[in-house]
Specification:
Elements lengths: L23 H21 L8 H11 L6 H12 L4 H22 L9 E2 L2 E2 L1 H4 L2 H21 L7 H15 L4 H11 L6 H26 L5 H28 L2 H4 L5 H4 L5 H5 L1 H18 L6 H13 L4
Helix pairs in contact: 1-3, 1-4, 2-6, 3-4, 3-9, 3-15, 4-6, 4-9, 7-9, 8-9, 9-10, 10-14, 10-15, 14-15
The structure holds geranylgeranyl diphosphate.
């Protein structure tokens, strides 16, 4: 099997396509993914290990019952579009959400963003304590890889399983999420130019979104280098667009609607796309990325339409 290029791709001159607007049928599919991943995560978080009652409770508190479930939805819908049955996508969908929750719990800690509110309720370290929140993140990360390595997944070859582990580990390490978070921490109070902000966004948030797309495809048995490269570029575009939209919502959204403190970036003097370029330019960039994401996969036949709709879902969200 060919390995997947994980580096964010540089912008190209590809002609933008129009991404489709989500329909009621698409909304129902999203909702079904959200319901399904809730059940899968609930099952996985019934940990049998002795002496971990408080840790398990905090892991369940942080993971279950809230969140848009965007990353598992990307796994499910990309995987389905590539021909996988939903059951085959449960393990990779759970793995990306477990990693995402770990990153949120650690990001909220006093040593990082020091937030009190997440998903409309007190952050993990507020509801429990800081030590427990550190362990929640650690244990969720370990569980994500355990799920990919050990869960029975009918129809996935050992090579594809290994590739999923490789893709996910690269997406969240120094070249991806953790590295992007390090840049983010160092950027507080400083001015970054737009390329530097984009680099931070692509790594901090974009890389896991890109990995979600790739895990869906890999679980479906996609192994052609050209197809995987197109999907990797698609994932990179929507990953960056997601974070730019997040910057926009931080300015335009409400704390109630977002379930986290609105205006937090400005309050912390963080460089964001919106602060560097202004809201209008940030919105135009998100829309351009949506179109470019659709163009990246326009050669993938039937799959192109659902992927374009997914791009619209990521960019046009209001929470
Ligand atoms: C701690 C290694 C480490 C990394 C943290 C992702 C991240 C890196 C921090 C999260 C901080 C943050 C709020 C970033 C903005 C983009 C983002 C990830 C928002 C939260 O994701 P959503 O909107 O959240 O998908 P829900 O709650 O819906 O899952």
């Amino acid at each position: 099997m060919r390995t997947v290029p994980l580096r964010a791709q540089p912008p190209s001159d590809a002609t933008p396509l129009n991404a489709a607007a989500p329909s009621a049928e698409f909304a129902a599919r999203i909702s079904a993914c959200q319901t399904r991943i809730e059940r899968v995560l609930d099952d996985l978080l019934r940990l049998p290990d002795p002496g971990t009652d408080r840790l398990r409770e905090a892991m369940r508190y942080s993971t279950l019952g809230a969140g848009k479930r965007l990353r598992p939805t990307l796994v499910y819908l990309t995987g389905q579009a590539c021909g996988a049955p939903l059951a085959r996508l449960d393990a990779p969908a759970a793995a990306v959400e477990l990693i995402h929750v770990y990153s949120l719990v650690h990001d909220d800690l006093p040593a990082m963003d020091d937030d009190d509110l997440r998903r409309g309720r007190p952050t993990c370290h507020r509801a429990f304590d800081e030590g427990t929140a550190v362990l929640v993140g650690d244990a969720l990360q370990a569980l994500a890889f355990a799920v990919l390595a050990h869960e029975p997944i009918d129809g996935v070859t050992p090579e594809a399983r290994l590739e999923m582990i490789r893709v996910l580990s690269r997406a969240i390490g120094t070249g991806g999420m953790a590295g992007g978070q390090a840049v983010d921490l160092e950027a507080v109070g400083r001015k970054l130019d737009v390329p530097a902000i984009e680099n931070m966004h692509r790594r901090k948030t974009g890389a896991l979104i890109q990995a979600s797309v790739l895990l869906g495809a890999l679980a479906a048995g996609v192994s052609g280098a050209a197809e995987l490269a197109a999907l990797a570029r698609f994932g990179a575009e929507i990953g960056l667009a997601f974070q730019i939209q997040d910057d926009i919502l931080d300015v335009e959204g409400s704390t109630e609607g977002l379930g986290k403190r609105a205006g937090a970036d400005a309050a912390r003097d963080k460089p964001t796309y919106a602060s560097a370029l202004g809201l209008d330019a940030a919105k135009a960039r998100a829309q351009a990325l949506k179109s470019r994401a659709a163009a990246r996969v326009s050669a993938l036949g039937d799959r192109a339409q659902i992927l374009a709709t997914l791009a619209a879902y990521v960019v046009d969200r209001r929470a």
